[in-house]
Hints:
Its EC number is 5.3.1.6. It is built from six helices and 14 strands. The protein is α/β, with parallel strands linked by helices and 232 residues long.
Amino acid sequence: MDKAQQDALKKAAGIEAAKLIQDGMIAGLGTGSTVKFLVDELGRRHQEEGLEFTGVTTSRRTQAQAESYGIKIVDIDDVDHIDITIDGADEVDKNFNGIKGGGAALLWEKIVATNSNQIVWIVDESKVVDTIGKFPLPVEVIPFGAGHVIKKFEAKGYKPVLRLDADGKEVRTDENNFVVDLHLERIDHPQELAEDLITTVGVVEHGLFLNMVDKVIVGDPNGPRVLTNSNK
């Protein structure tokens, strides 16, 4: 699938998901290429249809995009709940386990998600997999002692790679931390792995989002389809 086709599917999923946001809602707005189309559509609805809602964003770049349309964005601690969060995902399997953090926003994304009444992911069909892990699993780590954390991961066979930008500098998250990507190929026991990662000193958060999502809207050539998590 070429980029233009993939973008068309992402856009269709984003427009479909935008219908879930209604007047007066507090909505979590995720980060990434698919969410960009969602925010564009919400901006259009705000300007053309007078849709009024309050947004909480998972990254500074989503905030800047939303505010450019005049959408009201507030700090997460200024709201007592979030009605719905719509975000992308890098992979999602049939058990509704996902990997997120390809855009290095996993910590903020998880904080917003865990404070939301409903979580919806929008993905193109290439992100729906049988078993997660082909996409490298992002782990946010404190810069101090990061080398030791990476050594621990190496010893466990997690195949860690410190994420660098185009200039060869460490990628920094919105909280100024590093991202270490684990090249696992497949994750058969995500719960155990999540537990191991989060209890490693120096790890702030990991990109395993396990059985958290309520609905996944998949951009499909025949039109967006909705997968509903019956375990939630």
